[in-house]
Write a sequence for this structure.
């Protein structure tokens, strides 16, 4: 049994084979790094760019980007939920 969310989201890219899945994972990784940057900005950290670099160039994460594994999607969902949690328009004043 596969991962249904990953299968649904990656199926348009899977039409192009393994390289299509690589493109899907690269897009998700870039969006994850962007959300990490925006989360650090929202929390008021002084070196926001460091969050972008630390997410994108973590050794295991960087290797996993260029595979067809589901960890990139899981990381994106995690940082998306953290970012949405800290948005003041969703949960009021934190």
């Amino acid at each position: 049994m596969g991962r249904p969310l990953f299968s649904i989201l990656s199926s348009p890219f899977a039409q192009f084979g393994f390289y299509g899945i690589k493109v899907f994972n690269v897009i998700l990784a870039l969006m994850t790094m962007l959300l990490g940057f925006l989360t650090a900005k929202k929390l008021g950290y002084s070196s926001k760019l460091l969050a972008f670099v630390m997410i994108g160039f973590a050794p295991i994460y960087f290797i996993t980007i260029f595979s067809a594994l589901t960890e990139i999607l899981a990381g994106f969902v995690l940082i998306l939920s953290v970012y949405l949690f800290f948005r003041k328009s969703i949960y009021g004043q934190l």
Remarks:
- The helical segments are 4-14, 18-42, 48-56, 59-65, 71-86, 88-91.
- The two ends are 40 Å apart (CA to CA).
